[in-house]
Every structure is written in C-alpha cells, then in structure tokens.
Amino acid sequence: MGKYILKRLLQLVPVLFFVSIFVFLIIHLIPGDPVEVMLGEDDAAASQELYDALRKQLGLDAPIYIQYVRWMGNVLQGNLGQSMQTGEPVWDMVKARYPATIYLAFSAFIVGILISIPAGVIAAVKQNTPLDYSAMGFALFGISVPNFWLALLLILFFGLYWRVFPTMGYVDPSVNFIQFLWHLILPAIVLGTAMASSITRFVRAEMLEQLRLDYVRTAKAKGLPPRAIVSRHVLKNSLVAATTAIGLQVGRLFGGSTIVETVFSWPGLALLVLEAIYARDYPLLQGSVLFLAFTYVFVNLIVDVIYHWLDPRIQME
Amino acid sequence: MKQLRTLALILGLFMITGSLWAADTPQYGGRLIFGIRKDLSSLNPFWRTQSTDSYVRQLMFEGLLDFDLKGKPVPALAEAWQISSDGKTYTFKLRSGVKFHNGKNMTAQDVKWSAEYAMNPKNAATGLSLLRNVESVTARGNLIVDFKLKGVDPIFLNIMASIRPFVVVPEGSVATGSNQRLKKLVKAKKRIIGFPPGTGPFVFKNYKRARHVTLVRNKNYWQKGLPYLDELILKPARDTQARFTSVRAGDLDLIERAPYAFIKKITDGDYPNLGIAEAEYSGFRRLIFEVTKPPFNNPKLRHAVRYALDMRELITAAYWGYGVPATVWAIPDTSPWHIGLPEIKRDVAKSKALVKESGVDPNFEIELIARKGEEPMMQVIERQLTSAGFNVKLEFLTGGKISRMRRSGNFMLGFSGAEVVKDPADAYPFRFSCLEGKRKKRILNYSGYCNPEFDQLTDKASQTSDKKERFKLYDKAIRLVHSDLPEIPLVIVPRYFVFNKKVRGFTTDDGARFNLTTGGLSRTWLAK
Lengths: 317, 528
Known about the structure:
The structure holds two protein chains of two kinds. Chain A is mainly alpha-helical. In chain A, 78% of the residues lie in helices and 0% in strands. Chain A contains 14 helices and no strands. The longest helix of chain A is centred in the middle third of the chain and has 36 residues, at 90-125. Chain B is α+β, with helices and mostly antiparallel strands. Chain B has helices spanning 2-24, 51-57, 108-119, 156-160, 180-187, 240-249, 263-267, 299-308, 311-319, 348-358, 375-387, 399-408, 428-432, 434-437, 452-463, 467-484; strands at 31-36, 65-67, 73-75, 78-83, 89-94, 134-140, 144-149, 202-208, 212-217, 231-236, 254-255, 274-289, 324-325, 365-371, 391-397, 413-419, 487-500, 503-504, 515-516, 519-520, 525-526. The radius of gyration of chain B is 26 Å and the shape is globular. The chains are: A mainly alpha, B alpha+beta.
C-alpha cells in the first residue's frame, strides 16, 4: 500500500506540471490587462510611464514563456508569488480561504452521502414503486435545477420567510461554532443536493446490478433476511463502484462551488478564484487554480485507497 | 372635571409629540451591517484601485473640502478659503482641534506634506494628475495653507472637494521614495491594512479578507456629536439578488446597488420594512463613434443613428423606468451648468433620410461593441437600430479589450459609461479636444473628435473665473459638440441604497458615496 501511495504521489508531479502549463496559458489568454485593472482605466491611460513601469515591475513585459519559467521557478521553491491587487503572498491568501472551502465541501459531502445512499438503496430495493419514482424524481430535480436557483429559493424560504437560517456570511468555527453551523447549513444543502442527485442514480444502478447476481439468490435461499442481504452484502459491493463517482464529485465540490460561495458570500477558494479572474490577478489565479488542481488529484488518490479498502481483491498497482 | 380632561388632553398630546420627536431624534450606539458589492483591495488613500475602496476610505479620511448633497464644495478640514485677486493662490484656513485617529493634532504642515506626497511623481499617487496645476504648497503657522497654482483654474475648488487628489494624513506617515508604490505592490504583506491614520468619522478596527471590515466611532471627530453609530461592519456580498434578500431578512441593515426590479415595490409599500436612498444621477451612458474613419466620419450618418434611438424606451426596457434621457454630456438637468438642449425624439423617417443624404451605402453594417454585462441595454439599442433599417453586428467584449480598442481608435461604435460631472471643465475639454483626439493612444477622447473652434472656446473658458463668461463659452462649446455629435448621450440612471426601517438618517449624493461631511453614514443612526 505504502509503495502504491508513493508511486501515485510521484505521478502527481507530471500531472501538476501539465496542469500548470494549461492554467498559465488559459489565464494569459483571457482578454484584459491586469495593470489597467490595478490602476483604473483612466489612470492607466493618463500615465503611460506609470503603466509601463508597473508592467515591467510585475514582469509582464517579458515573453509569456519567460514569465512561465520565472513563475514555475518560484513555485518549485514553494513561492506562489504575490497578489497583484493586494500585494499579499498568494500562499497566505489561499491558506486563509482554504478552511472555508474544506468546511463547505466536507459538509456538502456529508449531506450528499446522507441523501444519496439511502435514496439509491430504497429506489433499487423498491424498484418501480412510488418510492423508486420519488427518489428518481429527486435525482432528476437535483441534476436539472441550477445551483443559483436552488440557493435563492432556499434563502427565500429558510432565510427570509421562515427566518430559520441566515441568508449570507460566514462565522469562524473558532469564534462561534453554533453560528458557524447555522451559516453553513444552506450552502451545504445546495452543494450537497447536486452531488446527491448523481450519486443516487449511480447507487441505484449498482444496487440493481448486484441484486440480480447469484450470491444474492444464494443468500436468499439460505434464508438470510432481505435487510441483512442488502446492508451486509449488496450495499458494500455497490459502494465499491459508487466510490469512483463519489470521488469525482468530491473533487468538484472543491472547485465547483463558485456560484454557491458567491450567492452566500462564503469566503472560500472558489470565490477567491472568481475575484482573481475579475481583477486579472495572474499570480493569485495561477496559485489558487494550481492548488485546487492539487486538491482534486489528491482526493482521487484517497478515493483509490478507499477503493482498495472496500474491496481488497483490487490490486494496488 | 373639565380642567382635568383638558390637562389629560394636553398631557396626551405632549406624550404623542414626545414619542414622535424621540422617533426622529438621532440615537447613539448600535452596530450597522452594510452589504457592499465587493471586497476591498486597498485602504491606502493615495492609491486608486476600485470604487468600493474609495467609498470606504471616505469613512476614514477627509480632504480640505467636500461636496454637499447637491454637489457644491463645502468646508471639511478647512473651515474657510480665500482666492487671490489674480485667481492663482488659494488660501485655506484649517479647523483647529482636528485630531488624527492616532490622537495627534492636525496642522498646516500635515496638509502641506500630504499634498506634496501626492504631487511627487515618485510616489505615483492617484492625485498626481489632478494636482498638476499646483506650483507650490506653503504652510503658514499651524492653521493656514496656501496653494499657488501655475495658472487660473476655475474648478480648483471642485478638485479640492474630491477625495482623489489627496487626503490629510500625519506628516511622514507614508513611506516616500522612488517607486515605493511599485515595490509595495509587489512585496508588501497585508497591504490592505498598511495605511496611515485619517481624520474621518470612523476608525479602522479590523479586516478579514472576503468577510468584513469593521470600523468604530471616532470619539474625537471634529463634527461634535457625530457619528452616531458605535460600530460599522461592511460585508462584501457580490450577488445583487442575494444582497437584497439579506437586507429583507434583516441579516444586513443597509445595501448598496439594490436591484432596480424591486424599487417600485419598496416605494409602493409592498416591503413596509424597507426604505430607500437614491443617488439620482449616478451613472451616465453614451454611444461613442469613431469619427476619423468611414463610415462615421460622416456627421449625417451619426445624426441618422441618433434619430433611430428612443431614450425613453431604453429607460423603460433596460432600467425598469428609472433614469432620465441625457441631452448633454454627463451634467444632470439640476446642475447650474446644464445647457438646455432639447431632448431629441426618435424619428425613423428622418433617420432614413439622413442615411440617404450621407451617401453611404445603406446596407453597411454597424459594428457595435459593449462590455459583457450590458446585455439588457444593448439588446434594446440593437433592436431600435435594426427597426430603423440599420444592419447591426453587436459584440460583447471584456472591459480590457474594449479599452484597448478605444485607445487605438480601432472600433466603429461603442457603448460606454461615465461618471456624472458637476462642471463642464471636468469633462468636455479633455473628452473632446484636438490634443486628446490626435494622441497615438487616445486617453479619454476615444472618438478622435477634433474641432479647433471647440478648443478655442474651452481654452478661453479655462482662463476665466467669471461664471457668466464661462457659462457663455461653455454653452457655445457644448452646442458645437452636440451638433458635431462624436458621441450620443443616452441616459443618466440612478443608483439605490436600500435599508431596513431601523436605519435612520442615511442620505447620499449623486456619486452614491457612503459618507459625506453633510450626510451619509456619519449622520446615520439606528432606532432602538
């Protein structure tokens, strides 16, 4: 196992290298001039000298490949650079925002799992019954409904009409844990619903596949109660395949929560990426996207390890 | 018995009046939570970044003068001023007893140092270009400062009333030197809190990136008794709809840039717990022609486009009915400088006749560019032009790309916004002068327009301080520009602040500022 993890960690290096090139190129292809954004359009135009000096100071006057080599050189030394807008080290900014993203992603994951696995199991066991249709209806709803719409709907009902949860904001858990949870619930439900929808369908499909296999028939013939067959055997086997889908969804939870973070003013990494795009803050954008890519790849590594833990027959190669 | 009844009546009336009075009497204390559109990027008052930063800085920093709610320069840190007979020296008498947030008394030397800091090109301060006409600043004693100008400047008081040229900070409180701004931009840590103390009504307490900035009451504020609030928390909430829902739910007390869609509901009383403050002439919208190249080097064709547009419909369709047609460049009709040009109504027949007269192939295609996010407005304009017989290719681009196209003159027709100005000298000379239009990289005269007669008039206006004479000259110059039509003024639209009913006393000006010497958050209080 240790050898496998080490091997996978080494594989991270070329993956992140290609991601870094891709990210760098994409970011520099976005139209817009960071210096103009920094100075304000009129000031940038009014003082060409300042504009040119700032471009030079920030290294933006060099050819793009030189800029990449310089940036990569710094990254390899553990320096993600400084934000053009605020002058703060990118690493400090990413580090400051990361906990909020982790809390949100983890809570959404819990919400997603709590909804999707029971719903998928019930839908499979009670196939073609109203319970199955309801579960599948929910899955269809969750996939079809845009995040921002669900977010606004929940804010309207739970925040405005019933005043159960706050409509926006973030409280640090170390400051007030109860308030933190209160602020977390709505964004976690929105993000978790999208995840739950696709996993429910996956779990149901896998469950149906397993329920048709010989070992289930044998278990029934032995007189094992249906509940025990499902919980002890079928569910575990179904989850092996579902884990892959869950892993991919977890990766998306980290990077794909931009809309949810924006609507709920949740100060996470995805909102930081959005702000960096608006400001054409290249170092911040490159640093935060690279970090998100690392998280995505790392989460998938964990999923593979869990995969082996769920089914030891799977070879770790 | 009768006497008792009369006494009871008087007492009752007294109690009702008293309670009404109490309801409208400012109360001290409380914490106001204000939802702002963006997170902050810098609070250093000498650096220009984004408008939100500038609005927040006005809570902590002040200049010598300020604008009142009507846009007139009024005393702020200077309680009075005098202009020399040649119009070249402005003497400001400072208020005594003004304290910085660090407890130090403000002196004339601090004013001189702050102005000179902004005027030093090595510091690359945002006020550098605004103060280019200042020759020297002299401190006389503790409370007198002279600004000697290189030439007469009729809008110098307007410049001094803005926060952009400079604010007063303690002498030596910001590092000076070659390229220090650039070095700081690249190297400084936590730049956001690396700023000097000010004199404003609120004092910085703390900042958490993307979460909030907290300001507290300046107990030594020179306007005795102000501000009323103990604490002010500004929270970034980027989504307009969510921001509005939060103020309805009571999670925020006040928001800026409320969605137009809900304004009528609030004024109709559908949301009885909400109130509104209006910045009536907050945004100016226009269409810019590139006039040095075909097809819009033909003035008849420019007027043909003008007659194809219906500003009233634009306001209804794109701004929910809020706004007024703009007849001149960015000066609202309440301004003493407003030139009474008539509103031009849509006239398709006239538009088609002008196209014919222009001799341009009627099947030519107008390439119209606009920023992403301006879709509602542009779709209306596109439909109006198309229905008048024009072929239109509408393209939405990023701000940076549009900026480059305008600066190089590489466009045909572009949609743009601008701030409303208080004096024509703030806009016309550099937006339409030949010098600006002929630059290789156009700074603000994007159309490339040049009319020497216009330049003569505005040059002459810039040399005179006589208001009547200036008005006459600008009247002619403005009429000339609007006859040549390098740009079509479209509409002036408002911006709204929405607050819950416990928020009292909040007012704003046409600039939609958060704070003014005569209004804004320094005079806002919370009803208990």
